Amino acid sequence: MKITLITCNRLKNGPEAALVETYIKRLPYSVEIIEIESKKKDEVEQYHDENTQILSALSNISGYIIAMDERGKDLSSRAFAKHIQQKILPQHSHLIFLIGGSSGLKDDVKSKASLQLCMGKMTWPHKLARVMLFEQIYRAHTIMTNHPYHKD
User: Fold this and answer.
1) Model confidence, pTM
2) Which residues constitute the domain of residue 125?
3) Residue 137 to residue 27: CA distance in whole angstroms
4) Is residue 150 in some structural domain?
5) Tens digits of per-residue pLDDT, 98-112?
6) Is residue 26 predicted with pLDDT exceeding 80?
7) What is the distance in angstroms between the CA of the first residue and the CA of the last residue of the chain?
8) Which of 4, 27, 112, 125 has the fewest Cβ atoms within 10 angstroms?
């Protein structure tokens, strides 16, 4: 399986970057991170530019797209693992995750996704969202392989 994360903003060195790297190293999958960065100063222009760049990046790859969105489906770790194992992997070997900028993803970007997923009702900073996503991908892997990492 291959995992691609298309995300806005760069993750500079620091504890969040170290945690992301830790989870990526634990995964037996090929992982690619495409960081989108807008040079626009105006928030509205930046929002449009980021989403245009995401659509451009998506035009070069294919796979099962999951958009991270605060109004998306709220799945438990087990349900997320089950969804990957039963609904995605039988048809796709490439999972593509999208994390928008501070204003989120435009509807035309979200419409490309087969699943919109949230990380709960709380708001999280982008740096932590990336860590939490990779932790949940790793957790899903351990659930699917019956590894004792996940505890109910």
Assistant:
1) 0.94
2) 2-144
3) 8
4) no
5) 999 989 999 999 999
6) yes
7) 26
8) 125
